[in-house]
Give the backbone structure.
Amino acid sequence: MTEDHLQQEIQQLQNVYSLITEFLVQYSFRLVGALFIFLIGLWLAAKVSNLVTRQFEKHGIDLTLSSFVSNLVRILIIIMVAIISLGKLGISITPMVAAIGAASLGAGLAIQGMLSNYAAGITIIVTRPFVVGNTITVKEVTGVVKDIFLGMTVLTNEEGEQINIPNKHIVGEILHNSFANKLVETQFNISYKSDPEQVTALAQEILAASPNVYQDKGALVGINGFNSIGIEIGIRYWVPTQTYYQDKYQTNLAIYKALNAAGIEIPCPVREVHIQR
């Protein structure tokens, strides 16, 4: 029984050897051809990818988009070459192409949110509605642009918080870009007995002398309205976004000190309560 079993094992090995030998003899040229085609495809994919990258750099297109497109081109070429190589081996590629198409459709439906973010990211990079360092406001969220990726845009604020906004929520929305600065709007009341021209001059003097105020756009000071408390003075000026609150608070304090020193009354609402007995 042991000798018969050994003979059967030897016979099976001989059959496997014969099958492999026959396969190599019959398909060796196909294997070599398919391998040669695949290696040429890899070389071609690298060359085309580098060519795309150089063209993007030549025209000054964003590095993120350049890297994405060049990698996509290389992957597509490798996939096409792999399909051709399999066809060279005699493997039917029609069912494979159909399967890839079905899988692509399913994957597209599953990651449509991600794809829409990528499409929006490409739109942002190409159209450049803002760049790194700009101050933008979208959907009531304000911050300085730190990074722009294909899937999202990263903002930072004065508190050092990082805000990640998916790009699909930026494209197609109302976008405010104030570049490196942010507008400060302040109102306060003065008594009707006070001289508004004097108050306006004092506020303009404080703003003009402040190193925190962006002077190129010019500050605006004037009568914003009238109410039961007094004359409402409005102030509009620009400060760097990264120090928005710090500069606003310091400027408010300087204006208050100047008004107090000049004897300008800042009225407050008074409520009189009459008690009848």
Q: What stands out?
A: The radius of gyration is 36 Å. The longest strand covers residues 181-190. The chain has a mean pLDDT of 84.
